[in-house]
Amino acid sequence: MKVAKRVAQITPSKTLAITAKAKELRSQGYDVVGLGAGEPDFNTPKHIIDAAVQAMEEGQTKYTAAAGIPELKKAICEKLKRDNHLTYKPSQIVVCNGAKHALYNLFQAIVDPGDEVIVPIPYWVSYPEMITLADGVPVFVEGKEENEFKITPEQLRQAITDKTRAVILNSPSNPTGSVYAREELEALAQVCIEKKILIVSDEIYEKLIYDGEEHVSIASLSPEAYELTIVINGMSKPYSMTGWRIGYAAGNEEIIKAMANLSSHSTSNPTTFAQYGALAALTGTQEPLEMMKAEFDKRRKAVVKLMNEIDGIHCVEPKGAFYLFANVSEAMRKGGYNDVDEWAQALLEKEYVALIPGSGFGAPNHIRISYATSLEQLEKGIARIKKFVEGR
User: What range(s) does the Aminotransferase class I/classII large domain occupy (predicted)?
Assistant: First the structure.
């Protein structure tokens, strides 16, 4: 049966392929250690769950406006003002079915056929596919490992053409955990202002930053940067609400309106009672978030130490999110593997450790390990990786 070209050209997810194989092995009784999860291993805080239950009991089970309930949009405006020094009106906010949905709608709203969007490597797996689905062209710029995988203003300037529509910035980053400093963002913003290109600022991991690092929204740096930036954020990572599917975008009113119109013809509205849960997340206690962050930090330090002790593997210490992006090129070479996909597949089949090969992120010499799992599981998994690499 024929499918549309736009769908046929999408690359299958490496993450889902590894996950499926891991599930198959578990079903056969094998003790598989999963280090690929892109979600916190904590349950959603109780006060958020209670708010959603109360909303359902009070009859909040019907349609809402496509862009979200007024109370939640107001709370998002207050959050952006409080945390990011950004002033928006509710008409500049659209609530979506997760930050991923917000990104998808954004590219559909701003990209015409042939428009180019600059995507730093390593990238989150869905960025190129979303751009392609909008008939756009992803243009890749490699963030060097020696620069903590971050791109420079010079690289950005060289990648811009008369077809460039936007650049994506993801800080803290999935998959690397890298965080752009204020001065780095200022330099990148200046290039975008000079060239008049949009900035897509994916800030979903903003609350998960360590070592005293500062999260800076590029939109806050100047009035000009504010005008060019669409901020993407959501509830999934900071509040362990991945299954609730609530995210949002903030920015230019015309673009936000277009995104809301698209939602009105595709998803109608974000799940009603989940919006009330999100409202409680933003306005209620932040203590569960701080406790989760402290545990991630503890795991981060342990994982960096253990992985860097393995001969043939080295990694840059991440400053944010809950991922470690490790260079395994030497280990691959010593083991006689042709590529990182083959290496990761062999690790899963021989030692029953599931992690994500960097090829899915545009980085064929790396792997992504998620430390959004227990310290016990992390230690067990890394011990198996060490055994696999050292051939014991």
Answer: 31-385
Share of the chain above pLDDT 70, in %: 100
CATH number of the CATH domain containing 14: 3.90.1150.10
Q: Are residues 39 and 50 in the same domain?
A: no
The pLDDT value given to residue 86: 98
CATH of the domain at 210: 3.40.640.10
> What is the percentage of the chain residues whose pLDDT exceeds 90?
94
Q: Which residue has the tokens 């070479």?
A: 333
For residue 195, which amino acid is it? K
pLDDT at 359 over 80: yes
Compute the distance between CA of residue 97 and CA of residue 24 in angstroms, rounded to an integer.
29
Residues 259 and 387 in one domain: no
* Integer Cα distance of 255 and 199 in angstroms: 13
Residues 278 and 325 in one domain: no
Report which secondary-structure segment, H or E, holds 325.
strand 323-327
Q: 70 Cβ partners below 8 Å, 6+ apart?
A: 90
Which of 284, 310, 337 is the C-terminal boundary of a domain?
A: 284
- Whether residue 97 contacts residue 269, with contact meaning beta carbons closer than 8 Å, is answered with no
Distances (CA, A) of 113 to 8, 131, 135, 262, 281: 17, 10, 5, 17, 38
Contacts with 263 (C-beta within 8 Å, 6 or more apart), sequence order: 66, 67, 94, 96, 101, 105, 269
Q: Which of 234, 253, 284 is where one domain is finished?
A: 284
For residue 203, the number of C-alpha atoms closer than 13 Å in the C-beta half-sphere is 24
Q: How far apart are CA 196 and CA 227, in angstroms?
A: 10
Q: pLDDT (tens digit, 9 = 90+) per residue, 273-291? A: 999 999 999 999 999 999 9
User: How confident is the model at residue 17, as a pLDDT?
Assistant: 77
Q: Are residues 261 and 327 in the same domain?
A: no
Range of the domain at 316: 5-43+287-391
